[in-house]
Design a protein that fits this description.
The complex is a heterodimer of chains A (about 220) and B (about 290).
Chain A: E1 2-10, E2 16-25, E3 30-34, H1 41-49, E4 56-61, E5 64-65, H2 74-78, E6 81-84, H3 96-107, H4 111-124, H5 140-152, E7 158-162, H6 170-185, E8 189-194, H7 197-201, E9 206-211, E10 214-220
Parallel strand pairs in A: 3-8, 3-9, 6-7, 7-8
Antiparallel strand pairs in A: 1-2, 1-4, 4-5, 9-10
Chain B: H1 2-17, H2 19-56, E1 58-63, H3 69-73, H4 76-81, E2 85-91, H5 93-102, E3 121-126, H6 132-140, E4 145-149, H7 152-194, H8 196-204, H9 209-247, H10 259-286
Antiparallel strand pairs in B: 1-3, 1-4, 2-3
The chains are: A alpha/beta (about 220), B alpha+beta (about 290).
Chain lengths: ~220, ~290
């Protein structure tokens, strides 16, 4: 569950990044967070992952109040999240299996559980045959699927995908989005940040639109810039 | 257990991934510990030698010449009751004369000398020669003690020398520990820098500070302990070689501590210092990555 109530964020130089943003997502819900570059989407992601704190307002993620959460509790929150980045953020000198297993090591999973779960999630993204490959040996789309597998490894309550299709071929983007949608159907809350109109419009999903740091619309189905 | 296994794997991997830097770190720790150990060994031996000499420093208490030998002997308990007195040796005037004559070339001048020209005396040995003056004053106050001779200058010299040796050793050891920690921190900082992306990623997927520190701590501990053990072996060989040289030289009279007596404390110190250097080094190295 994600909830933002009248959230403001200004940076140190006084520049407002977002102003009075309010929206909520229920467990298992899928939504696109859209808007032009510099509109404040990344600020919202950083607020949700605890990288920054809001200047005003209340942010709650999976039951954690981000305004009062201590640094010590932040890792616990992050373990309820799966985060997918535009630039994949895979570790170059580890193979596909190890990249996914790392997320489970962080969680403190047992080796037997890791050995069972990693091939399973790699199977979900269609990469069970590439476990021993290094990230550099994979295409952009495959690397992003590894990142999705890593996000899924600990069975998170919420997945936040920040421009997940930004670095992959357009024809693969729809396929990847279908995969995220399918994962969401299993009960995972899915917030996908993107600025690709066409892609959003292929799916009849909730669209939260941010413009100039403010909530411009929050509706089902279509994204019109 | 899984997590510890993970830290060990990651730490060991990192050592081999930065092989040259790891090697350099071990060499620096080895050098620092060897210098530290050598200083400590010299300091301990100087202390030991001074201690032996101190044990031989005594206060000479002359008994009133009107007192008989039996009366003089009865003073022993009172002397031993004085604070800081460790033992006393009674020397009769006859023994004192014999000793005196023994130090001289045979001369007819002394043939007629009677022991009565000398006094019975006590050699009083002290527990702590740095407070010799106070003990001398208290001995002087005992009825029956006519005069007290103490070489305060020599005692003070020994005490000063011991203090200087101790202070210099402690300062050098602390300095070298700081140098080792600094170098260890820089090595691990480099390791942390090369892994900064990885650190940022694991932090984002929920790693705690202790999870991030784990591999660096292991890496530091392995490097620290390896450096310590090699330094210990080198120190051992060096000590044996130097004491061997001393034994065959003109200063063989010096009472050198055998290595067997130093072996365990030295090993414990090296290991503890190696570990401390590693722990502080890794803390310093990755503190920047703990603030994200």
């Amino acid at each position: 569950m994600i909830s933002l109530e009248h959230v403001y964020k200004s940076y140190e130089n006084g520049t407002p990044a977002i102003e009075d943003v309010t929206f909520a997502m229920e467990d298992g819900e899928f939504a696109f967070l859209v808007g032009p570059s510099g509109s404040g989407k990344t600020t919202i992601i950083k607020l949700l992952t605890g990288e920054i704190a809001s200047t005003e307002g209340r942010v709650v993620v999976n039951g954690y109040d981000m305004g009062t959460i201590s640094r010590r509790r932040l890792p616990a929150l992050r373990r309820t999240l799966g985060v997918i980045f535009q630039d994949f953020r895979l570790i170059d000198n580890r193979n596909v299996y190890e990249n996914v297993a790392l997320a489970m090591h962080v969680y403190g999973a047992r080796n037997s559980e890791i050995k069972r779960r990693v091939p399973y999630v790699l199977g979900l993204v269609g990469l069970e045959d590439r476990m021993r490959d290094m990230p550099r040996e994979l295409s952009g789309g495959e690397q992003q699927r590894v990142a999705i597998a890593r996000a899924l490894a600990n069975n998170p309550r919420t997945i936040i995908a920040d421009e997940p299709t930004g670095n992959i071929d357009p024809e693969l983007s729809a396929e990847l989005m279908k995969l995220l949608s399918k994962i969401s159907e299993q009960g995972t809350t899915m917030l996908v940040v993107t600025h690709e109109h066409d892609l959003v419009n292929q799916f009849a999903k909730r669209v939260i639109r941010i413009v100039n740091g403010r909530l411009a619309s929050d509706s089902e189905g279509w994204y019109q810039a | 257990m899984n997590r510890i296994g993970y830290y060990i794997r990651e730490g060991v991997d990192s050592i081999f991934n930065h092989g040259l830097i790891s090697f350099a770190t071990i060499c620096v720790i080895l050098a620092c510990l060897l210098i530290m150990g050598s200083f400590a060994s010299v300091a301990l031996n100087v202390n030991h030698i001074i201690g032996t000499l101190e044990d031989q420093v005594s206060i000479l208490c002359f008994v009133d010449d009107k007192w008989s030998e039996t009366e003089a002997r009865s003073l022993e308990k009172q002397l031993l009751a004085v604070d800081n007195v460790s033992s006393v040796t009674f020397v009769t005037r006859t023994q004192a004369l014999e000793e005196y004559l023994g130090q001289l070339e045979e001369s007819p001048l002394f043939e007629e000398v009677e022991p009565t020209i000398l006094r019975d005396r006590y050699l009083v040995y002290l527990k702590d020669i740095s407070i010799m003056a106070g003990t001398q004053a208290r001995l002087k106050d005992i009825p029956g003690i006519a005069r007290v001779n103490a070489h305060l200058g020599i005692a003070q010299g020994m005490v000063s020398m011991r203090r200087i040796v101790n202070v210099v050793s402690v300062v050098m050891i602390l300095l070298l520990m700081a140098v080792s920690t600094f170098i260890m921190a820089n090595t691990l900082r480099l390791a942390a820098f090369t892994r900064r992306n990885e650190v940022a990623i694991v932090r984002m997927i929920g790693a705690t500070n202790s999870f991030i520190r784990g591999p660096f701590n292991v890496e530091g501990m392995i490097l620290g302990l390896t450096g310590s053990l090699i330094a210990y072996l080198a120190q051992w060989l060096l000590y044996i070689a130097i004491t061997g040289r001393i034994a065959g030289s003109s200063i063989s009279f010096l009472d050198i501590i055998p290595f067997a007596e130093l072996a365990l404390p030295l090993l414990a110190c090296f290991l503890v210092i190696g570990l401390l250097v590693a722990i502080f080094g890794s803390r310093i190295a990755i503190r920047n990555y703990m603030r994200i």
